[in-house]
Structures are given as C-alpha cells and as structure tokens.
Amino acid sequence: MIEVVCNLHIHSTYSDGSGDYSDIASQALSSNVDVVIITDHNIRVKGLEKVIERDGKRVLILTGEEVHDANRMPQKNHLLVIGCNREAAPYAYDPQRLIGFVNRHQGLTFLAHPFEYALPLFNEKEISWDSWEVNHFTGIELWNGFSEFKTVVHTLPQALYYAFFPNNLPHGPLPQTLNKWDELLAKGQKVVAIAGSDAHELIYRLGPFHKKIFPYQYHFSAINNHLLLNQPLTGEFNTDRELILNALRNGSSFIGNDLLAPSQGFTFTAENEERQIYSGQELSIQNGATFRVSLPARASLRLIHNGVEIESVENADHLVKTIVAPGAYRVEAALKINGKLRGWIFSNPIYIRKDRVGLH
C-alpha cells in the first residue's frame, strides 16, 4: 500500500480563517502533507481545487464544506462534507436530509467535533453533535485539534502557554468520542474515523505586537490522516482526487500525531489462509484470523475489539494476535512524554465477519 498524508478541516478567508487558498497551499508545500482539504463554513468554494508543485514538492488541494444550520441557537450538528459536487448548505436544517443529499451526490459526510466543551474565556460555544438518530453517514471526526484546545484551556495563562508552545497540546481524542465510536462499531456499523485540524490560523494583536496562533503549518505537522492507497498519486487532478476520496470513504487510513514522532510506516493487517487485508477492509473467516501490527517506534500498544481491549503490550514495536470472534478491531498506540502517555496512532478498524459456509 502507498501511504500519503492528508490534513483536513481547514478554514480560509472564505469563512473564519485568516489565510487564503494561496497562503494555505504555500504552507502545505513547506510541510510533509500530500493532500489538504479546506472546509469553509456553509460555502462550497469553486474553481480553486488543483495540484500544485514547487521545488519538486507536490500537494493536492481539495475543497469541502463544514455545514451547519446558521439559524439554530445554540449551534449544533456541524457536518464535514467532502467530495460532493453540489452545494449542501441549503439542507443544513435537517441533518438526515443533509446526509442523504450528500450521499446521492457521491460525497462523504463526517460528524464534526461530535463532543467538545465551551471556551467562555474567548466566547467560544460548545457545538457538539446531538442528532445521534441519523444514519448512513461516512464517519466521525475522532480527533479535532481546536476542540482539544477548548478542553484544556480554562484561564488566560493556559491559553498563552499553548499559543506559544503548541507542540505540548495534542494528547488524544476526547474519551467521549472514542466511546461513541466504539459503541457504533459494536452495533455492527461501519464508521470511518478521521482527524480534523479545525485550523483557522488566528491572529492575536496587542498594540504593535501580533502573533499567529496555531498557523496552518503547525497543523500540517501535527494530527494527520495517513491514507493507504493501492497506487501512488499521479499528479493528474481527477485521478488523484478519486484516490483520496475512496481512501477516506473506505477508512483505508490511520490517524497519526506526527508532532510526537513520525507515524509513517505504521501497519495493521489481518490475514487468513487466503488473503491479507488492511484498515477499512472486511475479512470473512471460518477458523480464525491473525492480526499483525508494526510500529515505526516502540510504544504502548493496544488491540481493541468492539470497544474492549483484548491485548496490550508496553515498549513494543509489534504485536501479533490470533482471533476467532467477528467484529470491529482497531489499534491504539501511545508514547510516554515526560512521564505521561500521549496518543500517537489510532487506526481505522478491520472488520471480521463469520463465514457461515459449512455451519449448521
């Protein structure tokens, strides 16, 4: 499989971000990402998707949308829409109707920051997802960078600390979000997990002093989606766009906190006598399957089945486990930094189904 790095949930000057598409593309070219997906609020920006190249580096710029009902107070139910060839915002008033519209137009839908806290210090409201009766969405935003900031900041000194030392911020998805994801998976649903930067590149001014808070390039070095493709990106826009959308649709990916350590090279596979599969894929078994996990560095490693840990190892760079039970299996890896575990890698699930051939 070919691994590419994708950063998404980014806001530009078309909504409440401080940088335009050119600014974002320039910072992407100076980073390690291969794909950037910009999702402004309630607007499908046209004509700016492209492949850009500079000094031997190539980045694919895609446009999505973060859709929400602007007339609802307080705000809830933000939906990341990616790959839809129509403007989806007119359907924001009804989350299920919105999801259905996007599905009919071959788009992807991810519940944005499904759980988060308010940040009264900066008049930031809590904008969680509350319409859990919806179905047929692609997945959820498991880890949101700005939501995590709202979680840990309660005072101005704390805000200033993370503004000047942002590398100390990412610790992992909110426990509520992990629990909800596992709950959905345990019910047999296929739910793709993504990471979103929720990048705005805020600018703080005090007299002549100004500072960019969490610039785009910071986000590109932090919480990324590592997509697994069956062929390399080509540089041809339509081909590469479809490769990226298919990987996101299928959950052929893992989330990596690349600030802690490079996560490139992580692998998670399942195999039986006939075939080997990767995250997002499904394997039917009669007698069992073997999971193999390989990390690019030693870490605390957990294998989770339908929300329940079934194997864990410490200070390890690999894990092998034979299983017989059907369900959704996923991997978490954490690194100990200054005596505290911080989330590093979160895989999408591998789905094991019981082959009923020969059973009575």
Radius of gyration: 20 Å
Order of helices and strands: EHEEEEHEEHHHEEEHEHEEEEEEEEE
Large-scale geometry: globular
Quaternary structure classification: single chain
Per-chain topology:
Blueprint: E1 2-10, H1 21-29, E2 35-41, E3 50-54, E4 57-67, E5 79-82, H2 95-104, E6 108-111, E7 139-144, H3 145-152, H4 156-164, H5 175-186, E8 192-196, E9 202-206, E10 209-213, H6 216-220, E11 223-229, H7 237-250, E12 253-257, E13 267-271, E14 276-278, E15 282-285, E16 289-305, E17 308-323, E18 327-337, E19 340-347, E20 350-354
Parallel strand pairs: 1-2, 2-4, 6-7, 7-8, 15-20
Antiparallel strand pairs: 1-11, 3-4, 4-5, 5-6, 9-10, 11-12, 12-19, 13-14, 13-16, 16-17, 16-18, 18-19, 18-20
Question: What can you tell me about this protein's structure?
Answer:
- It is a single chain.
- By secondary structure, the chain is an alpha+beta fold.
- The protein is built from 7 helices and 20 strands.
- It has helices spanning 21-29, 95-104, 145-152, 156-164, 175-186, 216-220, 237-250, and strands spanning 2-10, 35-41, 50-54, 57-67, 79-82, 108-111, 139-144, 192-196, 202-206, 209-213, 223-229, 253-257, 267-271, 276-278, 282-285, 289-305, 308-323, 327-337, 340-347, 350-354.
- The strands form 2 sheets. It has an 18-stranded mixed beta sheet that branches. A two-stranded antiparallel sheet has the order 9-10.
- A hairpin with a 2-residue loop joins strand 9 and strand 10 (209-213).
- It is globular and about 65 Å long.
